[in-house]
Design brief:
Length: 361
């Protein structure tokens, strides 16, 4: 048992161990003080996590606490008190079930949950935590969800050996991280508490480790695209690189993705470089309607851009990208293999740039 002593001159006093009477009390502390979760003890340079949801509704339940970091990694926390006798039998299955639902979310779902909770845009919160550009952050979220990269934490007031052993076993053989957090509660006075967090269950994975971030460039991007895409699509990517190099304000911007290469076409809006579209080395083109809307671009201009894009055969971008917040549109490179379609795409982008110049945002 952990023993906490305070020394004041010649007086030594043992702090009284206090119990959390309700799971919601433990939730309150973790929600308000995410740094209680000592992730830096097991992940070197672990980024700060911020709470973006509490009691987040999912089928057959609700996630106690939902966090995210600037690398777009979600952390699901389920709180349990040791007096809850079914903790070992149910909490792990409950967490994994929640993770399976979360893995089906979109970036827009996460932004909506965060906005409802924060009462502000996740884009603004991203600035507070020193995050990357919004479009790269969104792709990191998508990449993590696509690859099942979600961190799961069981937070309890006390830890027993069977639960610790089970989580250690699962963590060593799973693609995601599942950890056990113990938060011991001591009371120094009626107004002063001491919380002692300990984290258990982390082991070196038997599979591949998460690749580090890298700064992409032209040669590395094209080499990765050749591995992932057909020759026809690589030719389209080369055309998009030329178009972006010639027309993007500030030149082409290469990303820092862990798994995929990226580059962005940018336009100055109120003196701030803003991404109009982002191209990935797997052949996906994202149209950043949500980012433009957040920059104050009018719905009329965005609707005009959407209409121009929908003039391209087989392109059907929903009006939701204009009406709803944080939405993106997407194109497959197959659509742009046809030279006439590629010309229509370039005209749509340049027309948007003209509108931004002549009418402002």
């Amino acid at each position: 048992m952990t023993k906490i002593l305070t020394i004041d001159g010649e007086t030594v006093k043992a702090l009284e161990k206090a119990k959390f009477s309700l799971e919601s009390d433990l939730q309150d502390y973790l929600e308000k003080y995410p740094s209680i979760i000592p992730l830096d003890e097991i992940y070197e340079g672990a980024p700060e996590i911020v709470c973006i949801g509490r009691e987040v509704t999912v089928p057959y339940g609700a996630i106690d606490l939902l966090f995210i970091d600037k690398e777009g990694l979600l952390t699901i926390v389920e709180t349990k008190l040791i007096k809850n006798l079914d903790i070992r039998r149910t909490v792990i299955g409950q967490l994994i079930e929640y993770a399976s639902f979360v893995s089906q979310w979109t970036t827009e779902d996460i932004y909506e949950i965060a906005s409802d909770y924060l009462k502000r845009s996740l884009t603004e919160k991203l600035v507070d935590i020193g995050g990357p550009a919004e479009d790269e952050f969104k792709h990191s979220i998508e990449d993590n969800l696509k690859n099942g990269k979600i961190r799961l934490i069981v937070a309890a007031d006390e830890v027993d050996e069977p639960l610790r052993a089970t989580i250690t076993f699962l963590n060593s053989h799973s693609h995601f991280d599942i950890l056990l957090l113990q938060v011991s509660n001591f009371q120094e006075s009626k107004t002063k508490k001491v919380l002692i967090p300990k984290i258990f269950g982390y082991t070196t994975k038997t599979g591949k480790t998460r690749p580090p971030k890298k700064q992409w460039n032209l040669d590395e991007f094209l080499a990765d695209a050749v591995k992932r895409c057909s020759k026809e699509r690589v030719d389209v990517i080369k055309n998009l690189i030329d178009f972006t190099t010639q027309n993007s304000e500030g030149g082409i911007l290469w990303g820092q993705g862990r798994t995929f290469g990226t580059f962005a076409f940018r336009k100055q809006i109120d003196g701030i470089p803003s991404s109009i579209f982002l191209v990935y080395s797997d052949g996906t083109v994202f149209l950043n309607f949500g980012s433009l809307k957040n920059r104050g671009v009018s719905p009329a201009i965005l609707e005009s851009f959407r209409a121009d894009l929908n003039n391209i055969p087989n392109v059907k971008i929903s009006e939701d990208v204009v009406i709803k917040d944080n939405k993106t549109g997407s194109l497959g490179l197959k659509t742009l293999v046809n030279p006439e379609n590629f010309t229509l795409f370039k005209k749509a982008v340049l027309a948007l740039c003209q509108q931004l110049d002549s009418k402002g945002a």
